[in-house]
């Protein structure tokens, strides 16, 4: 019984399989096409409201516009973009990965666990940061 031909055949098969890579739908292995490229997802456009001096933003993954002044704005929803056209006394984040653009703000608070948020404003607010990787920047 010859063992060499069996070993050679096994090595040949192993080498052949080592060059194979999985591809998606026949795409080349070096393709950078995204599975989400054809997504029909549309970011919801929402009008925020200030009730009794407070606006609470609870929507995730949305684009929210709050027209005018509001004493207190609390961002609870994550991964959203919020635009406030007026003056805010206290802007509080209890969420992560949100962007707030505000015309004028006096105080910004990032609560513990509120991470990766950004505030864009021409004003220079007092900042309390209990989270991580938060930023307050000029326009």
What's the arrangement of secondary structure elements?
Blueprint lengths: L3 H15 L26 E3 L6 E4 L5 E4 L3 E6 L5 E13 L5 E12 L7 E3 L5 E4 L5 E3 L2
Overall mean pLDDT score? 82
> Ends: how far apart?
81 Å
- The portion of residues assigned to helices is 10-25%
The biggest sheet amounts to: 9 strands, parallel
Structural class: mainly beta
The low-pLDDT segments are 1-34
How many H/I helical runs?
Answer: 1
Helix/strand order: HEEEEEEEEE
Q: What percentage of amino acids are in beta strands? A: 35-45%
**What would you call the quaternary organization?**
single chain
Number of E-type strands: 9
- Rounded to an integer in angstroms, the radius of gyration calculated over CA atoms is 26 Å
Describe the global form. Answer: globular
Descriptive overview:
There is one protein chain. This protein is mainly beta and 139 residues long. It is 11% helix and 37% strand. It is built from 1 helix and 9 strands. The protein has one helix at 4-18, and strands at 45-47, 54-57, 63-66, 70-75, 81-93, 99-110, 118-120, 126-129, 135-137.
């Amino acid at each position: 019984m010859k063992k060499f031909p069996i070993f050679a055949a096994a090595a040949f098969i192993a080498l052949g399989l080592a060059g194979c890579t999985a591809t998606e739908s026949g795409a080349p292995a070096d393709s950078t096409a995204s599975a989400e490229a054809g997504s029909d997802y549309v970011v919801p456009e929402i009008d925020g409201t200030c009730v009794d001096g407070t606006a609470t933003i609870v929507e995730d993954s949305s684009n929210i516009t709050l027209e005018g002044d509001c004493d207190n704005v609390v961002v609870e929803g994550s991964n959203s973009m919020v635009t406030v056209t007026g003056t805010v006394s206290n802007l509080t984040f209890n969420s992560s990965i949100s962007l707030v653009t505000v015309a004028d703000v006096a105080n910004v608070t990032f609560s513990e666990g509120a991470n990766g948020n950004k505030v864009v404003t021409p004003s220079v607010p007092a900042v309390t940061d209990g989270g991580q990787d938060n930023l307050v920047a000029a326009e």
